[in-house]
């Protein structure tokens, strides 16, 4: 009976691992595809163009119905910070996996 339970448990581990790895792979593919847009946004944020756009928004020169979260003082900064934290998290995960799995 112990053997059957072990095999069932390991089968559950296999199923969960396959699902998680597949989902992570899909998420990483989407992340990789978004990097060009992210870099474009990162370059824009804090640039002279962003400063001018921000000033024009503050002066009321932009249409009121224009979506402009990109001009908020924290929106892009928070995204950059979150992205950096995610990269550090991924680096730690990879480092630990390489050290413990001997890959």
3D architecture notes:
The chain has two domains: 1-34; 45-103, no CATH class. The protein is an all-alpha fold and 103 residues long. The two termini are 34 Å apart. It has helices at 2-44, 48-58, 75-101.
- The Cα radius of gyration reads 22 Å
Portion of residues in beta strands equals under 5%
Give the helix proportion (percent range): over 70%
- Major sheet description: none
> What is the total tally of β strands?
0
Tell me, rounded to a whole number, the average pLDDT. 95
Shape: elongated
Task: List its traits.
mainly alpha, 103 residues
Please outline what is shown here.
By secondary structure, the protein is mostly helical. It has helices spanning 2-44, 48-58, 75-101.
List the helices and strands and how they pair.
Layout: H1 2-44, H2 48-58, H3 75-101
């Amino acid at each position: 009976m112990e053997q059957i339970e072990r095999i069932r448990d390991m089968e559950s581990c296999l199923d969960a691992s396959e699902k998680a790895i597949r989902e992570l792979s899909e998420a990483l593919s989407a992340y990789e595809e978004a990097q060009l847009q992210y870099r474009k946004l990162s370059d824009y944020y804090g640039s002279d163009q962003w400063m001018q756009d921000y000033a024009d928004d503050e002066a009321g020169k932009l249409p009121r119905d224009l979506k402009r979260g990109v001009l908020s003082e924290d929106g892009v900064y928070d995204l950059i910070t979150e992205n950096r934290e995610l990269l550090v998290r991924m680096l730690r995960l990879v480092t630990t996996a390489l050290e413990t799995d001997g890959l």
